[in-house]
Amino acid sequence: MTLLQLKYIVKIVECGSMNEASHELYVSQPALSSSVKELENELGIEIFTRSSQGIALTVDGAEFLTYARQVLDQADLLEERYKNAKPRKQLCSVSTQHYMFAVEAFVEMINSIKSDEYEFTIRETRTKDIIESVANMRSDVGIIYLSDFNKDVIGKLLRGKHLEFHPLFRAPLHVFISRNNPLAGKKVVTMEDLKPYPFIQYEQGEDGSFYFAEEAVWPEYSPKQINVTDRATILNFIVGLNGYTVCTGIDNGDLNNEKIVTVPLDTDETMLVGWITNERAKLSKAAEDYLTKLKSVVASHGYKLIDR
């Protein structure tokens, strides 16, 4: 197996056909097909299915593509580190549920670095996508939570993908509501109190389930329910539609405290928030710096860190 063969596979997938890939690679189509076939024979798998309609990745091929991209990314890093005279670019990628403290820590990490060049990525995304991103090593760190309801299912999924969950803090449940909501002045609210108001939750996709929900509890029946995909939208709906969502209770400047407040929810349920890492990967210095800032930010909001 060679890096060139891996590059061939990735390019074929990007182009969607052997013919177009051969043109972009400046390789004859027979030579490209022969190289792919040699690799399939060596590995004992079929990477592509071939038909009159074209080619498509097999299940084995999709898995192989994930590892091929990782190898090529690492090869690029090696070249950048040792072939160029300039300092190595700092890299860090984080995938997270929609937590403002996770973004706050990311900002602090970037402000603290001493590097002329860096490439950082933060994705606020679905729970399953976070897990897949860390499993495929596209993200160094993932931020999720466990609860009594989801811990068995999520835990089994993490173990199957060689991921480790690191507890950060345990949060009693709160709700975000508009400051103009009649419930805003209460010391604690119940799900029954919230029933007249729209329940807003983060959408988890067609293959999502209650176990992937970002909300640790939800109403047994909600006559008004809205599914959203991003944090800005959920905050606008809380104000504009007088809705609510279930959260950790941590807020910061972009929550706009003039319009939105957090109120404790009357429940025994809690959220064990933490980060996940891939057992097969070593964290970069930037990723380690991010985790340090993450702990600092959580502590600054008055939450007790879980030591391990």
From TrEMBL:
PANTHER family reported in the protein's UniProt record: HCA OPERON TRANSCRIPTIONAL ACTIVATOR HCAR (PTHR30346:SF0), TRANSCRIPTIONAL DUAL REGULATOR HCAR-RELATED (PTHR30346)
Which residue numbers delimit the HTH lysR-type domain? 1-58
Superkingdom per UniProt: Bacteria
Name under which the protein is recorded: LysR family transcriptional regulator
So what family is this one in?
Belongs to the LysR transcriptional regulatory family.
The scientific name of the source species is Bifidobacterium leontopitheci
Q: What's a single GO MF annotation on this record?
A: DNA-binding transcription factor activity
Keyword annotations: DNA-binding, Transcription, Transcription regulation
**One term under GO cellular component:** protein-DNA complex
